[in-house]
Amino acid sequence: MKMPEPDKAVIERRTQIISSLMKFVPNGSIISEKKELSVYESDGLTAYQQVPMIVVLPETVEQISQVLSYCYKNNVKIVPRGAGTSLSGGALPLADGITLGLGKFNKILEIDYDNRCARVQPGVTNLAISEAVKGHGFYYAPDPSSQIACTIGGNVAENSGGVHCLKYGLTTNNILGLQMVLADGEIISLGGKHMDSEGYDLLGLMTGSEGLLGIITEVTVRILSKPTSANALMIGFDSSKQAGKCVANIIADGIIPAGMEMMDGPAIEAAEAFVKVGYPLNVGALLLVELDGPFEEVNFLIDRVKEIANSQGAVSLRVSRNDEEREQFWAGRKAAFPAIGRLTPDYYCVDGTIPRSKLPEVLDRMSELSKIYGLKVANVFHAGDGNLHPLIMYDANNPGELERAENFGSDILKLCVEVGGVLTGEHGVGVEKRDLMSVMFSEMDLNQQQRVKCAFDPHQILNPGKVFPTLHRCAELGRVHIHRGKVPFPDIPRF
Amino acid sequence: MTEVLKPSDSSQLEDIVKWAIADEIPLEIAGLATKRGLGRPILGKHGNKGNLVIGHTVDLSSLKGVSLYEPDELVLTAGAGTPVSDIEELLESEGQQLAFEPIHMAKLYGHEGGTLGGLIACNLTGSRRIKAGSARDHVLGIKGVSGRGEYIKSGGRVVKNVTGYDLSKLMTASYGTLAALTEITVKVLPAPESMTTLLIFGLDEKTAQRALSSAINSSHEVSGAAHLPVRPAARLSLSDIRNEDSSVTAMRIEGFRPSVVARCESLKKLLNNFGVIEEVDKENSVVFWRDVCDVNPYNEMKEPLWRLSITPSMAPTIVEKINKVIAGCAFYDWGGGLVWYKLDEYLNDAGATIIRDVINTNGGGHATLVRADDNIRSQTDVFHPQTLALAKLTSRVKNSFDPQRILNPGRMYMEV
User: Fold this and answer.
1) What is the CATH number of the domain that holds B280?
2) Residue B25 and residue B90 share a domain
3) Range of the domain at B215
4) Disruptive mutation site among B48, B160, B174, B263 for chain A (greatest number of A CBs within 10 Å)
5) Which DSSP string do the residues of A284-335 spell out, in sequence order?
6) Mutate: best of B103, B163, B212, partner A, most A CBs <10 A
7) Are B258 and A303 within 8 A, CB to CB?
8) Which CATH number covers residue B367?
9) Are A88 and A39 in contact (CB under 8 A)?
């Protein structure tokens, strides 16, 4: 992975850029000391580091607008950053760019229970929204595992999911409006408190656009009434294949659980050793199924899922007896990443999605790859929606092992695409999967995506070097190719 | 001369668009052409020699058929020209449905039926919006031919996918102005095993709004929340309701039987103060919500019809303010978030100025002139006018797909 060559002319203007920025933002909002800058050198994808040229921490939308307008006119690149928890390098700084931190935008502006929504600033953490409304029995549904730290602005940029998105949807299904600043400093609003945004669905386009189209300055999220009860089952199977069949049968029976997660043998062992919550150690796959809703519904469905699990040859089955036990079931799953981290000096978390029916095939081929690369892998899996998280174990101190782990990861993602899936389910493309984009998209597809980028950001100052493997100039992409002189399709029926 | 061209596959469609680009001829993109009355009339275009070039129609109804349906993966792929009714029948045979509850809008224009492509291109979403989301929330992938004559794809067949920009959402609700759609993949969901509707008669609009709001705010997962004043209620199919000669406020509860029974009981207790609550069984519920979704009370009429997407709690106030100036009547869906407003009189702009002013100053939202004669629709903004900055951005997005304005030019906005 190579980042675009830094523009030396811009780096040489650094002092001048800083003094210009000081006109727009208050004292203390600009970080330029090397030592302080290094705090920002990477995000959740720590394999890549780059100290930014400057960090700016604006306090108002007008300041953001002025900073962008300046950068637009002076051709200075910008990397937006929320809490820096991206797992795909979305907030990886540029040597010739400004990292624009939105941490000071941390206020909940309005909670409107009558219309079941909240207006929040982008630096508010995901969990803080649910915390703020829980007194009224509401919550914000998407719950990425980094929810304590990750911000709603970052969630929008990455279209974050979480364990509960099987039933309640991703970020894109749970927001109603945005305010944003375009690359040229123009401030626009999309949607609002109404339930469908007008004109083109730019709200949908912005969600998951990885900071390449605009700076999000305000988000209107939907809040939901909390289900009155929830209960979970922990089901062990001899093989992932059986567990996968059980998942298919649950859904075929018309049941959409609030969450449905699977772990394979190595992941179960690691999690149990770490949190000791009573996971069975003699099984090949563990399925966690959570059902929520009215008490009567949950009870009814627990029995139905039990029946399905037993008919699929479950070797162990426990139903949580209370909320505490339910949370214990989840504790192992939620701690799976750090648990793996205890077994290996380093691990690399892959994030692809496959059609669920392809799971046995993908797992088989993954173990073959594991042998070829000589690296162990543990699997946690959002089973309900086919989102795989293989954790590849390696030691970065062994020369070449990081590259081997990355290549192994690439092969897994190519495999996901080959069986009808996609390169990334929830972590984003960022820099990590950028060079794999052509595995999934044709040049024509990618050019169209980049033309949309040009419609928002014609000078390509926002987060360049991410998502797209090749940067094209907007003028070059804009050309229309005209095919003249053809006989107009004699074969097409006309009326 | 205007022709109707009927491509039998995507490569023929590509040829048509490329030819139209070379000859600068605008194309009207149609499925079964049942919703021609929705949107602005397509603009003709001045050719090179100053002559007016009338466009051709591209009929996509041959691009039909379900190419993939895996019930236990909750996914279906079909050609854009596939009739929605075919898809609904197929899903029903497996106990599933399009969860966003499509609106069958053709009837408003005196037609029947419609295609998946039309449904998605117009993002037509019925009463279940409040629980299950809109059409756009269920689109997983789209293939189509852009106004550059390029066959492009976006998304895929899996729900969790953040690979690249979500151009599928962008093409959804773009009324055929960005790409002529050829194939669409949607998420499907199990159809509910049981369904009950709770009715309260005789509430005024503000009280009804409060009742609907407390129902949606409860944890009872209401999947429909509508209020019909006396006049639209008198045009419903169910004679028991029609004959009440009263307004009706309705809430739908769906799911597994024991759950529906329990939630209905809880909801009845919650809404006890609003009046006597009656229950409607599944069979009649289906008829009732079909009427509400498809705007049947305002079918078989010609008067201008508006669709207002607004802040739910503001709905009665907005309607009251509009009614002070215009003669018309409203009914409410989405707990007030969606209002169908039919004019009783003919006005030059179909009331656009007053309706939009009231919305803009009462919590925001937008109003679409869903039905009016061609004359009014070519002179009045059918879609809510955008701020200058947003209009410019919209135009640049259009440019990125269709710089020559070949596909449905003017259908959404004059410049787009």
Assistant:
1) 3.30.70.2190
2) yes
3) 194-293
4) B160
5) SEEEEEEEEESHHHHHHHHHHHHHHHHHTT-SEEEE-SSHHHHHHHHHHHHT
6) B163
7) no
8) 3.30.70.920
9) no
Residues B375 and B352 in one domain: yes
pLDDT of residue B3: 87
Any A CB within 8 A of B32 CB: no
Query: How many CA atoms lie less than 13 Å away from A193 in the CB half-sphere?
Result: 25
Same domain, B35 and B108: yes
- Tell which of B265, B293, B321 closes a domain: B293
* B365/A387 touch (CB, cutoff 8 Å), yes or no: no
Least confident of A99-103, B1-5, B14-18, B101-105: B1-5
Please check whether residues B351 and B411 belong to one and the same domain.
no
pLDDT at A492: 72
Asked if B160 lies within 8 A of A161 by C-beta distance, the reply is yes
Residues 6+ apart with CB under 8 A from B312: A114, A115, A193, A194, A195, B209, B213, B334, B335, B336, B337
Q: Which of B161, B390, B394 to mutate to test the interface with A (most CBs of A within 10 A)?
A: B161
Q: Is the per-residue pLDDT at B48 higher than 60? A: no
Answer whether B396 touches A (CB < 8 Å).
yes
Strand spans (E) along B93-150:
96-97, 139-146
Contact list, B212 vs chain A (CB under 8 Å): none
So what's the pLDDT on residue A239?
94
Model pTM score: 0.96
Residues 418-477 of A with CB under 8 A from B: 420-429, 433, 437, 440-442, 444-449, 451-456, 467
pLDDT digits 0-9 by tens, B135-177: 999 999 999 999 999 999 999 999 999 999 999 999 999 999 9
Please answer yes or no on whether A448 and B146 come within 8 Å at the CB atom: yes
Neighbours of A19 (CB within 10 A): 10
Residue B155 sits in the same domain as residue B227: no
Element containing residue A414 per DSSP (H, E): helix A401-418
Decide if pLDDT at B50 tops 70: no
Together in a domain, B47 and B117: yes
Same domain? For B265 and B364 the reply is: no
User: How many Å apart are CA B2 and CA A267, to the nearest integer?
Assistant: 64
Query: Bigger pLDDT: B76 or A491?
Result: B76
The maximal CA–CA distance of chain B, rounded, in angstroms, is 72
- What CATH number does residue B174 fall under? 3.30.465.10
**Residues of chain B positioned with their CB less than 8 A from the CB of A193:** 311-312, 363-365
DSSP state of B83: B
Question: Can you read off the two tokens belonging to residue A469?
Answer: 């493997």
**Residues B231 and B277 both lie in one domain:** yes
pLDDT at A392 over 90: yes
Q: How far off is chain B from A99, nearest CA to CA, in Å?
A: 22
The residue from B293, B312, B346 where one domain ends is: B293
B365 reaches A (C-beta below 8 A): yes
The arithmetic mean of pLDDT across residues B223-234, rounded, is: 98
- The answer to whether the complex's ipTM is over 0.85 is yes
| H or E element at residue B289 | helix B282-293
Provide the number of structural domains found in chain B. 3
Q: How far apart are alpha carbons B16 and B53 in whole angstroms?
A: 16
Q: How far is B345 from chain A, CA to nearest CA, in Å?
A: 26
Residue A145 clears pLDDT 90, i.e. is over it: no
